[in-house]
Amino acid sequence: MSTDQITAKRVSTNSxxxxxxxxxxxLPDTSTETYWQEYDLPVDDSTSLLDALNHIKEQxxxxxSYRWSCRMAICGSCGVMxxxxxxxxxxxxxxxxxxxxxIEPLSxxxxxxxxxxxxxxFLEHLAAVKPYLIGDNPxxxxxxxxxxxxxxxxxxxxxxxxxxxxxxxxxCYSACPQFGLNPEFLGPAALTLAHRYNLDxxxxxxxxxxxxxxxxxxxxxxxxxxxxxxxxxxxxDPAAAVNQGKVEAAKHTLIxxxxx
Amino acid sequence: xxxxxxxxxxxxxxxxxxxxxxxxxxxxxEATVLPLVFFTLCLLAxxxxxxxxxxxxxxxxxxxxxxxxxxxxxxxxxxxxxxxxTFFVLFPRVMPIRIAGHSLPDQxxxxxxxxxxxxxxxLFFWLLGxxx
Lengths: 260, 132
Ligand code: SF4
Ligand code: FES
Fold this sequence. Notes:
The structure holds two protein chains of two kinds.
Chain A: H1 3-14, E1 17-25, E2 35-43, H2 49-60, E3 79-82, E4 85-88, E5 102-104, E6 111-113, E7 116-117, H3 120-128, H4 154-160, H5 171-175, H6 177-181, H7 188-198, H8 206-213, H9 227-231, H10 238-259
Parallel strand pairs in A: 1-5
Antiparallel strand pairs in A: 1-2, 3-4, 3-5, 6-7
Helix pairs in contact in A: 3-7, 7-10
Chain B: H1 21-31, H2 33-52, H3 54-65, H4 67-94, E1 98-99, E2 102-103, H5 106-131
Antiparallel strand pairs in B: 1-2
Bound molecules: iron/sulfur cluster (SF4) and FE2/S2 (inorganic) cluster.
């Protein structure tokens, strides 16, 4: 590639233009009503929604509240609704949007202020499914001649690896109408996490988790709408995990029936 | 200020599913049960007619042949094929099949299910052909 081309390319990537975004504001200390606020900002091809929010906060309006940390789709804290679809701010690029860009806080969670929601119930649901190894090999004194504790083959890892990629961003909860209708529903990420541990060859806690999973607010509230898997930024496919969980829960019920 | 009293959570409206194409498609999938209920009722009426004797059986046959009933049952057929199509795609995600430690590709499972439909349909037409 000649230098000319490189320069030409660079000019086009940096070509700044202006985009218009609307943000749903909620400032409980001034009013109990929400309102839409419009902002015009300079963007180029690399401007993420999070960059845009940072620009607003730093240059235009310091009263705007939102969450972020890693800006690389790993901390899971920057979730917002973009035109009604849950997205990570740092993984959403304004170049992909023409016309209206409407930013709202994540659906189905109580809004505390602007784009900041209260995720307490989500964290409670995650904790409820006992998301840790149960009854695994107790830690033995390390024996260099037989280092066998926690060995796992690639096949055993492959069974749950996809479900272990969750970053707890909560986008799937905003995509789930069943959670919207009933916040007691454990929801996609928590049920996926439970399934991830149930599939782990080192774990023996499936029975202990079944009490939570095998009930109305557990797997049985899911009607396989499947939107959770569409919006998941980590391709975890929570809908698949939840419905595999239904199969497990049904097996558990049947076995309990036979044992009397 | 009390934290919870300042929080805002508007309840989900009954029209939530009108918001996206994805939710509408989901509702369509769920609605396929309605024409199927009609078809099931038709079959049930047929059983009753059969028990009641030749006259009512002939009546049921005439009823099933009437254009509106035929149309409704065609809708039921289309609905069940649509439901099958959506279900078959979901199936490998719910029941991943692993053979010797390797998972079978999703497309293979979907194709297998359609092959099953074809086999059952052929069997059905064969039986029908022998009966006639
Ligand atoms: S399953 Fe996906 S969408 Fe849900 S919390 Fe985990 S990473 Fe986010
Ligand atoms: S800022 Fe961490 S996921 Fe977006």
